[in-house]
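Revision sheet: structure tokens.
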Amino acid sequence: MIGADLPAWPVVDFAAFGEVELRPLSRIQGLTAGFLARNWLSIPHVTHQDDADITAVEALRATLAPRPSALAFFAKALVSGLKAFPQFNGSLDASGRNLVLKKYFHIGIAIDTPRGLVVGVVRDCDRKPLADIAADISALSAKARGRGLPMSDMEGGCISISSLGGIGGTGFTPIVNAPELAILGIAKAEWKPRRGSDDAIEWRLKVPLSLSYDHRVINGADAARFLRHLDEVLAEPKQLLA
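Predicted:
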């Protein structure tokens, strides 16, 4: 692994400086720590950031019953992005010399659980209506926070989503979930002014997006175009319902 010859982790007697408590990592935290360290060291990460206008998404959500999560719209929008930019729907093989282009569209959803972070996979998002995707996300989240997800629910993803929008923040740098090539980070949406016709001020709901990607395969221009495509798709959300 790249970086395997780094200096050893410092050994410190923290108790020498004051009272401490030793709390072992959960099994999930331990596994996740190893995977994240591997991915960070092995993948040349770049993160492209831009805003997307979700005013129309929120207006449409308000008319639907049951009301689907905004995350389901992003999952469907990502399918459109993967179709428009097929290199994002690929993985490098073990040799690193060949790009495996996938013809399926499975979207990973990062789920925060009391035991640690897991990524559940919603399969065949290109074939499912948005309502079914929303139901799948809800079911995966409930299972992850309950008894946990089996490996079959966490493998085979094409691209992942990490959403902190319900908590806050204006952007972050998500780590690519190898062997995927990119991950979309979603921060908290805010109303922002925009100059409209006749210089009138219009208020639009904008969400900050952070797209981290593997620079061995994806370049900056492609990442910028990918996020612009997502913005265009989310501006016409009715097309995402089917």
